[in-house]
Amino acid sequence: MGTFILIILFNPDADMSVQLCLLRYALAELFADVSQSGVVTLADRYGLMAAVFEEDQLTDDEKCSVNRLLRSASKGRVQIVNELSTLESQ
């Protein structure tokens, strides 16, 4: 657990924009971690945000995984925490 799932690119010479890049297989790892721990961390939420921004590049299975995680969170099946990773809360 605690795998980094995205890369944040910041270019100070450009227009000060930030680009989120989801790492390959990151959603599968995120889904497995959340399923095992029952917790969505701050890092997980950033990964989900990156996935939503790159929705056109996701496979159908990845889109289903994102939807399942969001549905689980909205129904209270997983706990939303403000820790950066589940390792902090152990």
Span between termini: 12 Å
**DSSP strand tally:** 4
Treating each run of at least 4 consecutive H or I residues as one helix, how many helices?
3
Q: Considering DSSP H and I runs of 4 or more, what fraction of the residues is helical?
A: 40-55%
The largest sheet is: 2 strands, antiparallel
Question: Beta fraction of the residues?
Answer: 15-25%
Name the poorly predicted regions: none
What is the N-to-C succession of helices and strands? EEHEHHE
Q: Please give the oligomerization state of what you see.
A: single chain
Rg over CA atoms, rounded to whole Å, is 14 Å
Brief rundown of the structure:
This protein has three helices and four strands; from the N terminus they run E-E-H-E-H-H-E. The chain has helices spanning 26-37, 42-53, 60-74; strands spanning 6-10, 18-22, 39-40, 79-80. It has a two-stranded antiparallel sheet with strand order 1-2. It has a two-stranded parallel sheet with strand order 3-4.
Describe it for me?
By secondary structure, this protein is an alpha+beta fold. Helix content is 43%, strand content 16%. The protein has a two-stranded antiparallel sheet. A two-stranded parallel sheet has the order 3-4. Helix 1 (26-37) runs parallel beside helix 3. The longest helix is centred in the last third of the chain and has 15 residues, at 60-74. The model has no long low-confidence stretch (mean pLDDT 78).
